[in-house]
Design a protein that fits this description.
2 copies of one chain form a homodimer.
Chain A lengths: L9 E2 L1 E2 L7 E3 L5 E5 L25 E7 L7 E11 L2 E6 L14 E8 L2 E4 L3 E4 L3 E6 L7 E2 L3 E2 L2 E3 L10 E5 L7 E7 L13 E2 L1 E10 L9 E3 L3 E8 L2 H18 L5 H11 L1 E6 L5 E8 H6 L8
Parallel strand pairs in A: 3-5
Antiparallel strand pairs in A: 1-5, 2-12, 4-18, 5-16, 6-15, 6-18, 7-8, 8-9, 9-10, 11-14, 11-16, 13-14, 15-19, 16-17, 19-20, 20-22, 21-22
Chain lengths: ~300, ~300
């Protein structure tokens, strides 16, 4: 397979000053290699986190300049395919993650990925659930480390971000400056110990500006079953409120529902879900079923 | 069907002073009728919340005295069946719920429940997902309104609580004093507008003390697929941390996993989920797959 962007092209903060690795046309298929979140520094179970160079954590591959993408545009990124490596890594670090107070020893575990399963130590094997941890565009202002999630995307660790999903970002700078990395062969919602099955990978995507979607609350995700708003904030209460309000805004502004109907249908059949609770900001999403949008006569043609 | 406890037997706070409606043997099948969360006060869309008597909200049916249940025992409640009514209700109330700041008008919507679907106004119909909102036992100390969740159970609004689930509570007082109510014909995780499809119903259950489970972090839930810890707290960050720590305690104390393995497997394949974010305390659960417990050689015979 032709790779357009190799995994040696990494950056560690989303910002306007990044130099594009490649310029692509809207709709052009792009294949990008990615590193695991440790940039390959941990290779065996003897490699503990104390040897890690923390300046090389959560690398994103890119950035990719999307021709014609302008600040304020809504950029749609379709994930056509994603592949993970044959080996993945999990770690513990005392004091870190949601169980940091209970964890007293560093440990690194190598997990084999084979036949659509992920193998943990001796007896445990779980289904592969490939997902992209870091994905986003440069923000209009400032610089956001790739380990942090936000309005620009970034380290959302959202399990919806996988093959078949479409992501929507508000373009912050000319060309959008898109990047992605930090794949997981599997990860449960919450990512509670601080990692999923961390793995290098390969992403195949197209990106293009969508019309008539100005004002969409981004990051926004769509797949076969649901649309979802994603919100990151220092506390889970703020993140949950943000995701809920973003979906209510979508349902009132775009689907044109009265706010009472939006709220009641969200309460009846929408789902508030955790993405991760262990990054510098916590990430929550709100999923709303597409079948209800269809029942309401809303066309999902742009989603 | 023989009903053991009719829906006129209600209480509004879980506490040791409740007078039992019925005394049952451990393992004896019990059928209980329940009221909707408004105790039937709202009957048409013209009945808005301003006419509600708030002293009659979230009634639980019972309490049921379980013979032989003693303080400190772990009580297992098996939900053999649950039925919901043919009509359910949703409401909005300005200032309340996760969208309270956006909602300016009270509204009451009557939803028909038919053919395993719930019908909302004209065109929207969603699959029935019956669940029990309020379920619990009297706490050892104090009195907890039935609208509030806590260590004793109560208004957890947890969508796992349905037919086929087993719930585990730590008995606080002689006879446990079990009660339940506040059924929903459907509700999305989060219950964001402040209600699900509120409905009266009928619960069929057995209750018995389980041995060798002392110290289980309760409330605890088990179904065909997962075990789950449930935790309620004033903030979502505290509730999430509580649910995560409770599952880590179960996996280390009962499954005998080293804490690093517990944490990594939780992060790999466990799921942190919202129950509700709109009650006086917020409720979060952590689900862990039973198939991993089996791979680890842990017998779920008591779960």
């Amino acid at each position: 397979m032709n790779v357009n962007v190799t995994r040696d092209n990494v950056f560690f903060a989303f910002n306007a000053d990044l130099k594009p690795v490649i310029r692509v046309q809207q709709g052009q298929e792009v294949v990008m290699e990615t590193n695991d979140c440790f940039e390959g520094q941990l290779r065996t179970s003897a490699d503990l986190l104390d040897k890690l160079d923390w300046d090389h954590v959560n690398p994103a591959t890119g950035p990719v300049y999307i021709e014609g993408a302008k600040p304020g545009d809504i950029l749609r990124v379709d994930i056509l395919d994603m592949q993970v490596g044959e080996q993945s890594i999990m770690v513990t670090l005392p004091g870190e993650g949601a169980l940091g107070d209970m964890i007293s020893e560093m440990e690194t575990v190598i997990l084999k990925v084979k036949d659509k399963e992920v193998f943990y130590k001796g007896s445990v094997h779980v289904p592969q659930k490939p997902m992209v941890g870091v994905i986003g565009v440069a923000p209009e202002n400032g610089s956001v480390p790739t380990g942090t999630p936000g309005k620009h995307g970034g380290n959302m660790d959202c399990s919806l971000v996988t093959k078949g999903a479409s992501l929507f970002f508000t373009v912050g700078v000319e060309g959008a400056l898109f990047g992605a990395g930090d794949f997981h062969a599997a990860m449960g919602d919450g990512e509670v110990v601080i990692c999923g099955a961390e793995t290098p990978g390969r992403l195949t995507f197209t990106a293009s500006v969508v019309n008539e979607m100005e004002g969409l609350p981004t990051p926004f995700i769509s797949n076969e079953d649901v649309v979802a708003t994603v919100y990151s904030a220092p506390t889970l209460d703020e993140a949950a409120s943000g995701a809920v309000h973003a979906m209510a805004q979508f349902l009132t502004d775009f689907v044109k529902l009265p706010v009472n109907d939006a709220g009641m249908l969200m309460s009846l059949s929408g789902e508030l879900k955790f993405c991760q609770i262990v990054d510098p900001e916590k990430t929550v999403r709100f999923e709303f079923p597409k079948f209800i949008l269809e029942q309401l006569g809303y066309s999902c043609k742009n989603l």
